[in-house]
Amino acid sequence: MLENCQSAKERWGGVNDIIDRWLHERQQLLVAYCDLSSIDKYDESNTAHTEQLKKLCQILVDYVSAGHFEVYDQLIKEGKDFGDKQGLKQAAELYQIIDNTTESLLDFNDKYQEADDLSELAKDLSSMGPSLEPRFSAEDRMIEVLHISHKDMVA
Q1: DSSP 3-state assignment of 121?
Q2: Alpha-carbon span 25 to 70, nearest angstrom
């Protein structure tokens, strides 16, 4: 039994680091989003605006990619390994909420990664905000359902 506990700790203890790193990236995303959203008038010739926008796009893509290709996979694997059928069912519903926002976020990146035309940036940023909140809530809930709920089994 002790071996099983040690194995679980070795196996799932590292997930905390992955999640922590990802949530730190989320915080950077929000800071970059707020910094850019606070500008009154966007100007393509203003290098500060274009650099802020490029930074936001890079963090956005990194964050979305890490979620889809690292974090969610780890959480689902953990749920499967612990036989958490209820948690996996909830996670599937939460993933749908997350996935519904992915395309619009990536479309934002595609549109602005070159920062050539900022004429619709204010409108697009205001549309992005309401996409982020349900995504973040669903991600937090997925972490709670598939990782935090197993912490006593790992410790």
Answers
A1: helix
A2: 13
| pLDDT single digits (tens) 93-118 | 999 999 999 999 999 999 998 878 89
pLDDT tens profile 63-85? 999 999 999 999 999 899 889 99
Distance, CA of 59 to CA of 28 (rounded, Å): 7
- What's the length of the chain? 155
Specify the DSSP class assigned to residue 148: G
Fill in the amino acid letter for 124: D
Domains of the chain: 2-154 (1.20.120.1370)
